């Protein structure tokens, strides 16, 4: 075989290997992926890691990471999540092509002071660690699209630096349980921001019981949120009212505000015509707008554990509604005909003054479907009973709030 043909075959082979390895989120087992079970002595040789683009050492009970990983300078994905790492990774400065870095669910109290991939990093997950402050390079990630800093005990004194962050291209931002009192200024001008999570999730049963997470306390809905926003989570942040210029969020599809003292929605709330999901559970709410049914795209409504007395007739307009949770909602009167909701498949009306079977002949089945989606400990506290006319006790409400969970893990970066 001629030298030119051999050279051409090598060139073609290299291109194919590289093309197979740069699929942005696929963690396939190929020569380009470094797995924890492979021999470290062999991998420490410089030539063996020439084409390593992805390193996945997640959930391997690691307490330290060998420094030879800095040799893989073509690496674009580094996943060290779910280990016992607690020291800084000083050699991050040598990795200059990283696009995804996942250090979540470790014990880091400090991260490297410098990173060589500030200009390339698009996905960063540092959630569930022990960080009290962040190095400056994280604040300078102008290309980052998915950012998860949740569940770190950031010092309040650090938040003056957090306001100077440069995350103007971020699309998904999670700042739950970071001792937040206001949002970084850059998020107000992050015109591609789609999902913003600012709530507190200490009640989630999947959190490690030995970890302590600082609660956010926002008190009011942050002003000047970008109009691109489609998901907003403000659960358990001590909101005292629901006042906001909602027409500034025309693309909002999911709103989660459970566990706040809202009492009633603002007058212009029903202008959110694209809203598909709303969670107002455990909000001490006693009044709903009569035109609530104007939100015709709603398909998921949670009003459980409130103090409502009337369900307005406008609910008959929800032709797309499939999930309606009214458990322990304080209802005395249901003005609408719930049998007119053609897509309703999940509904819980127990612990109200109304008779569920009179409102929905097939309520038993609908209730079973809804509770089948709940976590076991939340199902256990729900009773198949009608409420008595007595006022709902605060103790019952508090115990109920402590067992409300979000079903899906929405914060973890998918590869």
TrEMBL record:
Keywords: Leucine-rich repeat, Repeat. It comes from the Eukaryota. The keyword Nucleotide-binding does not apply. Gene3D superfamilies: Ribonuclease Inhibitor (3.80.10.10). PANTHER family: PTHR48051, RAS SUPPRESSOR PROTEIN 1. This is Leucine-rich repeat-containing protein.
């Amino acid at each position: 075989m001629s030298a030119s043909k051999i050279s051409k075959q090598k060139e073609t082979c290299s291109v194919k290997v590289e093309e197979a390895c740069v699929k942005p989120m696929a963690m396939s087992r190929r020569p380009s992926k470094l797995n924890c079970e492979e021999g470290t002595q062999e991998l420490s040789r410089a030539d063996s890691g020439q084409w390593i683009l992805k390193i996945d050492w997640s959930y391997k009970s690691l307490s330290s990471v060998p420094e030879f990983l800095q040799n893989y300078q073509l690496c674009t994905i580094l996943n060290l999540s779910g280990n016992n790492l607690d020291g800084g990774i000083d050699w991050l400065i040598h990795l200059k092509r990283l696009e995804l870095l996942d250090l979540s669910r470790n014990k880091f109290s400090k991260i490297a002071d410098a990173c060589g991939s500030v200009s390339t990093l698009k996905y960063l997950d540092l959630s569930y660690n022990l960080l009290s402050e962040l190095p400056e390079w994280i604040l300078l990630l102008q290309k980052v699209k998915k950012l998860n800093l949740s569940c770190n005990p950031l010092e309040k004194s650090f938040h003056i630096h957090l306001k100077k962050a440069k995350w103007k291209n971020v699309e998904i931002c999670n700042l739950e349980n970071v001792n937040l009192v206001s949002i970084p200024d850059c998020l107000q001008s992050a015109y591609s921001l789609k999902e913003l999570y600012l709530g507190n999730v200490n009640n989630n049963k999947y959190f490690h019981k030995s970890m302590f997470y600082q609660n956010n306390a926002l008190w009011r809905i942050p002003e000047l949120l970008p109009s691109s926003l489609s998901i907003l989570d403000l659960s358990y942040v001590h909101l005292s009212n629901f006042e906001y210029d909602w027409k500034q969020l025309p693309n909002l599809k999911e709103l989660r505000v459970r566990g706040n003292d809202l009492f009633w929605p603002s007058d212009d709330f029903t202008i959110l015509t694209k809203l598909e999901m709303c969670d107002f559970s455990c909000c001490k709410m006693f009044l709903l707008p009569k035109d609530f049914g104007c939100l015709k795209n709603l398909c998921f409504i949670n009003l459980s554990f409130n103090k409502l007395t009337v369900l307005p007739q406008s609910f008959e307009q929800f032709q797309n509604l499939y999930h309606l949770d009214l458990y322990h909602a304080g209802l005395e009167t249901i003005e609408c005909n719930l049998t007119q909701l053609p897509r309703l498949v999940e509904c819980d009306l127990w612990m109200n003054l109304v008779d569920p079977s009179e409102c929905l002949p097939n309520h038993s089945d609908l209730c079973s479907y809804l509770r089948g989606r709940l976590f076991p400990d939340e199902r256990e506290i729900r009773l198949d009973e009608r409420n008595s006319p007595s006022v709902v006790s605060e103790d019952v409400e508090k115990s109920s709030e402590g067992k409300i969970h979000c079903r899906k893990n929405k914060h973890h970066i998918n590869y």
